[in-house]
Predict the 3D structure of the following.
Amino acid sequence: MIVSVLHPEVLTIMEEESQHTTFGGDQEWYRDEWHRRAGCGPTSAANVTAYLALTRPELRGLYAGEDMRKGPFSAHMEDVFQFVTPGNMGLNRVEMYTRGVEEFARSRGISLKAHAFEVCGNMCKDRQTAREMAEFVREGLASDCPVAFLNLTKGRVRNLQSWHWITITSADIGETSLTACASDEGNERCFDLRLWYLSTRMRGGLVYFTAAG
């Protein structure tokens, strides 16, 4: 079963001078060097909030830009960073992300509700099943919200970065399989999310948002 946000094309961002396009934002666009090094979480949050703004009239205030050109979106990334702010260890906890996005939304007069799937390491006794994680991903995408994904260790998945946030926009979900595709530093990256879940040694998580109330 393939599930996707309804308008993935919304995350196509055009660089004004070169006409080059990316799929979502790239943390390399931050002005400050530390922001570029630690900015994967705020970049993901900028993707999610811009998508919500441009697909829901009642949430339009989440994004000040008129379109998804690099200039306006880069400004949006800087705005989001002020709320979704990495610490010395980066943005390494799901609650840092959810709290920051909700505070950013409130600063724009909007209430968002975070839905989070917390992941503990693969030796955790009370761990939820891979099928429960797949259902969470399905619910998030079916609600038409990109799903932010935190991965502290990539496990046996070769094409993921560790200690990194990306933005899932679609997934192919089977009985014993889960392949996700995401915006990662301006590129689309598809990877085995189920394998990650079964092999990662550290915590991580997935997050999506709905309008509150």
The domain at 117-211 is CATH 3.90.70 (Cathepsin B; Chain A). The chain has two domains: 2-113, 117-211. The first helix runs from residue 33 to 38. The longest strand covers residues 164-173.
